[in-house]
Design brief:
This protein is of the alpha+beta class. The protein has four domains: 92 residues, Thrombin, subunit H (Beta Barrel), CATH 2.40.10; 87 residues, Thrombin, subunit H (Beta Barrel); 90 residues, PDZ domain (Pdz3 Domain); 87 residues, Pdz3 Domain, CATH 2.30.42. The strands form seven sheets. A six-stranded antiparallel β-barrel has the order 3-5-6-9-8-7. Strand 1 and strand 2 form a beta hairpin. Helix 7 crosses helix 8. The N and C termini lie far apart (79 Å).
């Protein structure tokens, strides 16, 4: 049975070009759409996804005596006295939320520009980034709903399955490459030259693929044959051909919903974490904080969340986006599916102090995770705050508070929460290539 089937497939493949070449220009007087005859699943996927793939670039001035360090995951191109960092991204929400790699973002740049496939450019807001997982989220305001790509799952990726990568390598917008999944669960270790302290950072559990990925393509979507995003292209193996890597989308979705676009970032506590669900399915309650708002409202693990205040939701990002627009103390009504039965649950949102609020209150600075080096990057300084008197400056990197090392916004906030007000504390870090230290008194 199998042999005749293989023979039929082989015969069909051999005859297809000839039959297409001999296709008539019209049938019964109606013109034949020859492009439709040539269409394949890949061409259809590319046509659907391309409008949601964007080009991301930043231009960073270079001080004469202090060039920025190179990073192996992107290329810095010298243009006069500036570096232009190119990268890719994809729109995941019609309101203009753009997903990309953290290493694409230069937080010291005066602005981040996102260019759509049609040529429209927008200044982007950096919502947040997670350097540990190499994921960043941007927001643009296009004043209209934007096309999106659907995020799928990566837990069931098969070695050998066809994948399509779309990005902007070397500034060539919406370039397409096709290949297969070569391997799974790869650890990608970067050269130690990327960190001034000699540490060798590693990214874990990558998808290995043979689709060509070039500098500037980082952050673009990796799609399966169903048109679902199963990863973000992120790295190129140096001194090799046909070897690239992508971040599995399950990890991307988990970081988005529980670390980057989370209500806690805005001082709102709902008392639960969400699990990654199947494409197009309602978000699922993955964990509940005992005594928290979700627990008090009677929510249970594995409840499916169908709607927030009457607005339907199909994945965890939509839930978090709606809650982030709420305020502490609000009562939100959740439509929940449990055991095949729908029910309404009212959750009273509590107020908590977010990590950003803690750091601003105590030190008078706003920081983000550093996309390249150990520590956090200062992006704003309160001119009347404690750090301004040190003085801490925008673009400084802080890596030590007292005797505690800090490598993320959350770590810094947790250290500060353990210190009493008016306590003098020593801050250490570096400015450019030079280290500094000084003592401030927390407010």
């Amino acid at each position: 049975m199998i042999r005749p089937l293989l023979l039929a497939l082989a015969t069909g493949l051999l005859l297809a070009p000839t039959s297409l070449a001999q296709a008539p220009d019209n049938i019964d007087g109606r013109p034949v759409d020859r492009r439709a005859l040539r269409a394949t699943p890949i061409t259809r996927i590319v046509a659907d996804a391309k409008p949601a793939v964007v080009n991301i670039y930043t231009t960073v001035p270079i001080p004469a005596r202090d060039k920025l360090p190179r990073h192996p995951l992107f290329r810095l191109q010298r243009r006069d006295e500036s570096n232009t960092v190119l990268g890719s991204g994809c729109i995941i929400d019609p309101d203009g939320y753009v997903l990309t790699n953290a290493h694409v973002i230069q937080v010291q740049a005066p602005e981040i520009i996102v260019r759509l496939g049609g040529g429209d450019e927008f200044r982007a807001e950096l919502i947040d980034l997670d350097a540990d997982h190499d994921i960043a989220l941007l927001k643009i305001d296009a004043q209209r709903p934007l096309p999106t790509v659907p995020l799928g799952r990566s837990h069931d990726i098969m070695v050998g399955e066809t994948v399509i990568a779309i990005g902007n390598p070397l500034g060539n917008e919406t370039s397409v490459s096709v290949g297969i999944v070569s391997s799974l669960h790869r650890d990608v270790r970067l050269p130690s030259s990327s960190n001034p302290d000699g540490r060798t950072p590693a990214f874990n559990d990558f998808i290995q693929l043979d689709a060509p990925i070039n500098p500037g393509g980082s952050g673009g979507p990796l799609l399966n044959i169903l048109g679902e995003v199963i990863g973000l292209t992120a790295a190129i193996a140096q001194n090799s051909e046909g070897l690239a890597f992508a971040i599995p989308v399950d990890r991307v979705r988990g970081v988005l919903s529980n670390r980057i676009m989370t209500p806690r970032r805005f001082g709102i506590e709902d008392g639960m974490n969400l699990a990654v669900g199947d494409p197009g399915s309602a978000p699922i309650v993955g964990a509940i904080t005992p005594g928290g708002p979700a627990d008090l409202a009677g929510l249970e693990i594995d409840d499916e969340l169908l709607a927030v205040d009457g607005v339907g939701i199909t994945w965890e990002f939509e839930y978090n986006k709606l809650l982030c627009a709420s305020r502490p103390g609000d009562l939100v009504t959740l439509q929940v599916l449990r055991g095949g039965e729908e029910r309404s649950v009212r959750v009273a949102l509590q107020e908590i102090e977010s990590a950003d609020q803690t750091i601003w209150r105590t030190l008078g600075i706003k920081v983000v995770d550093h996309p390249q080096f150990y520590g956090v990057w200062v992006v704003q300084v309160d001119p009347v705050g404690p750090s301004a008197r040190l003085p801490i400056q925008r673009e400084d990197v802080l890596d030590t508070v007292g005797e505690r090392s800090v490598d993320s916004v959350e770590q810094l906030a947790n250290v500060l929460r353990g210190l009493p007000p008016d306590d003098p504390v020593t801050l250490r870090g570096f400015r450019g290539s030079r280290g500094f230290a000084g003592t401030v008194r927390l407010r």
